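A note from the maintainers: we've had questions about how concatenated examples are separated. There is no special marker in the raw files; a new sequence line simply starts the next protein. For clarity in this README we add a label.
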Amino acid sequence: MRKKLIIPIVMMIILFISWWAKYLFFVPHFQAGPKNTLVSTKTKLVFVAISPEAEKLGIHIPDFIPFWKTIGVVDGEMKGTLWEFKDNGKTYVSYHPDVEMDVGSVYKYFSK
């Protein structure tokens, strides 16, 4: 009986540790850049609008974005998480800060 309980508990612990390790090692870490940009080693995001203002521009931010759509985390003063979503065929990134006042921003990928 104990063996039947220990195996699922160990599996859940391993899953939790691997999920946590994803954010430390495999998800890009962004920093605030010049002119309202977020920059990582391979990606640059350009500011589009603050979340409430994005709706006025016609960008609909989904209420629920699955955790596997995470594209990175923001370090420094702007600590938060970045989630990718599509609206009207365009790809945007929603930034959610790790603070109580959850007023995020919408970014888009920088293209030259």
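[label: protein 2]
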Amino acid sequence: MTLFSVDDYNRLKAFILDKDITQIQSAIKNGKLTYKGLSLFYLYRIGQCDGKNKLSLNSVVSLNRNLLEEAKEKDKKLNNSEKNGLFATFRY
């Protein structure tokens, strides 16, 4: 994935891993993290951890193909001072 590098992953790790939703929302609100960055972080993590070898969980059935567009829209709304909650999208 060229949109996101291991350096990006390592830079954002401190704001995401072992954090609860409130802490992640605070990082987004304070400009330390974006919804797009959060989305790319997890897409990168899925790519690194799921399906890479025989021991992988292969737990991801499908991904929302609109995820990054939705994340960009959330960032835009946040930048326009609209109230946002952390979002999750499930597609069946």
